Task: inverse folding
């Protein structure tokens, strides 16, 4: 069954005669939109609001669609218009209105047997024992009731006949005490999500305020203020009518999040990169959840799962060498000049896929947009064909630049360490080390690539690959490759030592 969140009653005028009317009805049924009523134009529930035409008929249908209630009427109108256009039927949604569900949240009650209740003249211990029996459920009958207090009692006594006066009810929760302040469970969960998102956003602006001056500080102050006001407003809406206690609770939550982010409760302060990453993760998770819940699994699983599995395996195998290849190119080496163990290739692939997974932010945005019935994400809107591919290209370009920057940063850190004579950092299994190169033949006759080998000073060694010792000349800033069978590689203690035994 198709999952839906909202029901929208739509009045659709279909023109073209009986053939088009029948085709429109088939389309409505195919989309799971029940036809509640139909009448010739000028009659029915809309009456003369629709001009009477012999080839026109008005259908009252119920459009079911996912997403929030706000804007659902416009989203339903677009879906109906798309379905009729696909069937080449002339039709117009003349009126659409959201059907809101019942918002009551009554208490649960249990019917009880009151035959053992002491009379008013009874002694106090009997009343106490009777209350204990009620609390332990020893007087319960086999009836569960869900209503307000007066109606619950009438429901419990219904059909009891002469025993009706001996039947009472006991509450299973405390909602009956303050029925006006209890929100429906679904609405309360939604408002809690909104409150915590505002609170997290307010705390997330604090790292961006640290060390800022001028207009950037003013910008983040305004952003922080907006988030705080949004959190307080959302916190005040956690009950109806609004209460001061909810605002106080919202303030305490805001203070707690601020102390955690700034490290006042122990631990390290949260950095800007962590906040940005957490924001992207929340966006991707929520957006994809909104998108996936609109899918029909029977249609997607048949081809999407095999395709995703094939792409995942092939991508993982191919991605293992991408970062290493970019790293080698930064030193003027070929990808095959680095002998990297398979485990490090796998870890490099995970790193690359983690960076590229940020592209999931695009379908996540699409899922959020469709959930809120935005026009540029509505099914069938022609603007999708311009907006989403363009955004996809921009996202892929940005992620490609991020991957290149990752390898370039590793190359820059290694060359900087080499220039300073320090130990260079590793890069996914590649560990450049200072090494003395001792030729086993006269150095003048040593074949190789790059600048002439100077055996008196250390080189950065990337290991042996393809029968060659892969070296890096820190002074010339060029790679050097010599046959491994004609040299001995001896680890050097430091970069400025003089290699002996030449």
Result:
């Amino acid at each position: 069954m198709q999952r839906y969140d909202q029901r929208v009653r739509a009045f659709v005028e279909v023109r073209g005669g009986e053939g088009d009317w029948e085709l429109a009805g088939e389309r409505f049924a195919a989309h799971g939109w029940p036809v509640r009523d139909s009448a010739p134009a000028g009659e029915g529930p809309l009456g003369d609001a629709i001009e009477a035409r012999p080839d026109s008929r008005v259908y009252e249908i119920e459009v079911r669609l996912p997403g929030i209630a706000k804007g659902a009427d416009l989203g339903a109108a677009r879906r109906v218009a798309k379905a009729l256009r696909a069937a080449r039927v002339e039709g117009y949604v003349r009126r659409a209105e959201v059907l809101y569900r019942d918002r009551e949240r009554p208490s649960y009650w249990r019917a009880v047997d009151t035959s053992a209740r002491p009379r008013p003249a009874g002694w106090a211990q009997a009343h106490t024992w009777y209350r204990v029996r009620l609390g332990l459920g020893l007087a319960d009958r086999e009836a569960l009731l869900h209503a307000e207090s007066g109606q619950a009692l009438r429901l419990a006594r219904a059909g009891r006949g002469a025993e009706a006066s001996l039947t009472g009810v006991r509450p299973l929760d405390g909602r009956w005490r303050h029925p006006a302040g209890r929100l429906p469970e679904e609405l309360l969960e939604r408002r809690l999500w909104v409150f915590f998102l505002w609170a997290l956003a307010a705390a997330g602006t604090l790292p961006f305020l640290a060390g800022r001056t001028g207009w950037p500080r003013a910008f983040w102050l305004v952003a922080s203020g907006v988030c705080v006001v949004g959190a307080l407003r959302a916190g005040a809406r956690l009950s109806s009518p609004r209460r001061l206690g909810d605002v106080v609770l919202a303030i305490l939550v805001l203070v707690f999040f601020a102390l955690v982010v700034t490290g006042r409760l122990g631990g390290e302060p949260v950095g800007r990169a962590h906040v940005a990453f957490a924001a992207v993760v929340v966006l991707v998770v929520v957006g994809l959840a909104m998108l996936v819940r609109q899918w029909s699994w029977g249609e997607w699983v048949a081809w999407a799962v095999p395709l995703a599995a094939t792409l995942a395996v092939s991508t993982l195998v191919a991605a293992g060498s991408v970062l290493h290849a970019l790293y080698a190119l930064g030193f003027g080496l070929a990808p095959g000049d680095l002998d990297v163990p398979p485990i490090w290739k796998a870890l490099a692939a995970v790193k690359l896929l983690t960076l590229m997974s940020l592209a999931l932010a695009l379908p996540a945005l699409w899922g959020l947009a469709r959930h809120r019935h935005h026009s540029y994400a509505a099914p069938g809107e022609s603007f999708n064909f311009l907006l989403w591919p363009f955004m996809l290209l921009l996202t892929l370009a940005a992620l490609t630049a991020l991957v290149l920057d990752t390898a370039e940063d590793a190359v820059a850190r290694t060359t900087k360490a080499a220039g300073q004579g320090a130990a260079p950092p590793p890069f996914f299994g590649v560990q450049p080390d200072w090494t003395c190169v001792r030729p086993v033949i006269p150095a003048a006759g040593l074949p190789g690539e790059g600048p002439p080998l100077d055996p008196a000073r250390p080189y950065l060694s990337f290991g042996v690959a393809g029968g060659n010792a892969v070296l890096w000349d820190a002074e010339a800033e060029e790679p050097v490759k010599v046959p491994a069978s004609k040299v001995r590689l001896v680890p050097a203690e430091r970069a400025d030592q003089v290699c002996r035994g030449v």
Observations:
- The chain has a mean pLDDT of 80.
